[in-house]
Amino acid sequence: MFQKVHTKLKPWMTQGPINSISHRDRLKERYLKKVTAESWTEYTKYRNFLNSLIKVTKNKFYEDKIKQADNNYRKIWQQINDVTNTALGRVESNKYRVSDGEKAEYFNTFFANVGETMASKINTTNMSEIPLRNSRVRGSLFLYPVQCNELIEIISTFKNKAATGIDDISVEIIKEFHQFFLAPLCHIVNMCFMNGCVPDYVKQSVTVPVFKSGDRRLVTNNRPISIIGNFAKIFERCV
Known about the structure:
By secondary structure, this protein is mainly alpha-helical. Helix content is 55%, strand content 6%. It has a two-stranded antiparallel ribbon.
């Protein structure tokens, strides 16, 4: 008799496939007790049927999940990663286990130097042969001054759960207290338009590595995502 192992069932596992698995195990047990061509054929035929049934059940489960996501791309990608077992690729070996501080410093060093490293590999010997346009642009870009009511409309379009930047100021706080800083913010934005510059504070962002594919131990298999502050998002919308 097979020893039953209690494992956590997959979310797509319904009672039908569970019952079929039990029947498959009984057929295998019967075959092992009396090895005949008939019992083997009966077992393999039912085993193949069960594998097809499980595959159809699993596909139907995730198909329904994606439909329920209703164009929510984050939820859709969560289901895709679940199906493709992307989350299972994490390295658990002590050989590669480092502290969060060491990991952050490692990623920071790589992303800070990757641009210069790639630029050094570009062949610039023939760059002078590329013809450049010397004609001046007839038109020009003009940014009209921003009004306070425009800032209110922009802030109202932000989602409350939007990620915060380096200042950790959430959209909820901005919406709750915008009347206290609306006029100064409007003045700062218009001064930026007039002088053609943006405060360094607005340019700061939090860089987060997002795993793409392949070996998780390789930093090159991650892409950097810059999360800017919500005030920087207001600047962008104004432009």
